[in-house]
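Ticket closed. Logging final result for Exodeoxyribonuclease III.
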Amino acid sequence: MRVATWNVNSVKQRVPRLLPWLDQRKPDVVCLQETKLADDAFTALLSEPLKERGYEVAVFGETQWNGVALLSRVGLDDVTVGVAGAPGFPHVEARAVAATCGGVRVHSLYVPNGREPESDHYKYKLEWLAALRDVLQTGPADAVVCGDINIAPTDADVFDPEAYIGQTHVTEPERAALQAIEALGFHDVVRQRWPNERIFSYWDYRAGMFHRDLGMRIDLILASTSVAPRVKAAWIDRHARKGTGPSDHAPVIVDLDEAPDGDIGPVVPPPSSPGGKKKVKLPQAK
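Final structure:
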């Protein structure tokens, strides 16, 4: 079973890339984030082309912002939306959908960004992650947590730790919240497969960050202790970030039980490309 997660940064804009990508990579389960469409609009746009490809669909969206979806060709049972006990900002946002697909509980998540350390949105992010941990703790043993987690697990997951000083995604409380989820028995299977390589999943559109490989790894697939041994390949589909009209995120793909494209997938992480010795300032840095 091939499981993929992708922050598409507006599914409406990404349709010309999403459908050919589905045909090329043939994932059995797809977790989408930042769809930016209400449920009825998502259905009107994609129900037929997804049905033609054999996918059942569960969506939790809202107009203009956020939005998550689950596509499955191996069953879509016991669908739930949202995270029980999670706060809103101020209202509940469309950030989580889960279902049982092929016997595995799959969570498609778009974790709050946090915006600035110590801001109200940052506190909301930490409270949301705490509620997610509680849900996962009482969930089925066979599970995967997929999505834009908006946390770089370690300094190795950003192009330059010094560039991120004072920014979200790398602070100790955020990483501790992620570690609390991992402590339940969830394994970062991409990093386990590529323990020493420079691998990212997100690159800012600005300042040529992708072409210089100045990115972050914030899109994760965490497999429970019972599922992790089934992982035969885990990789980031960097090619999907290239070309015209891409998302600023690349898909993350994990193969369970068998790896049709080999144990490293068709895309090996590129060699380290640190962008030269000159220090790089983040485009959003003040």
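The first strand starts at residue 2 and ends at 7. No further action required.
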